[in-house]
Specification:
Length: about 140
């Protein structure tokens, strides 16, 4: 019994030390906490756009919606639609056409298109030549 009392006391002291807060502020230093009025909560944070790409399955001009795969996107007045780098409208969108862009997922579950780029992704010319291009360039070069 005499041995258990010091061990129990030591464990209580250790638990107190471990359980105490480590973030004790320095003397004279004030810590402020954000208030709900001064900052946006995570639920009210600005929504981020989610990327998409695929082939258009259907287009409905009357409801201003289009389907890519199994997802239905709604076009709004804020949606930016482009085709070959120029401004376009939902009427320029055709079935079986490749599209990419971004959307917002709204509270009701609707997917609101932010941007829509119509057409296949343009390939930028590579600065490095492929093996076949190097051979062709070497063959057309005059030999001294």
């Amino acid at each position: 019994m005499k041995i258990k009392l010091p061990i129990t006391a030591a464990l209580c002291v250790a638990a107190f030390i471990i359980g105490s807060p480590f973030g004790v502020s320095a003397k004279g230093k004030k810590t402020t906490m954000a208030t709900p009025e001064g900052s946006a909560s995570p639920a009210m944070a600005k929504p981020h756009a989610i990327p998409f790409r695929g082939k258009v399955m259907s287009v409905d001009g009357s409801t201003k919606t289009f389907m890519v795969g199994k997802r239905t996107f709604t076009v709004t007045a804020q949606t930016q639609i482009t085709k070959d780098g120029a401004a376009a409208t939902i009427s320029d969108l055709m079935t079986d056409e490749k599209v990419s862009g971004s959307y917002y997922k709204k509270d009701g579950g609707t997917l609101e298109a932010k941007t829509v780029k119509i057409g296949a992704k343009m390939e930028t010319p590579s600065k490095a030549m492929t093996g076949a291009e190097k051979d062709k360039a070497a063959a057309t070069k005059p030999t001294p």
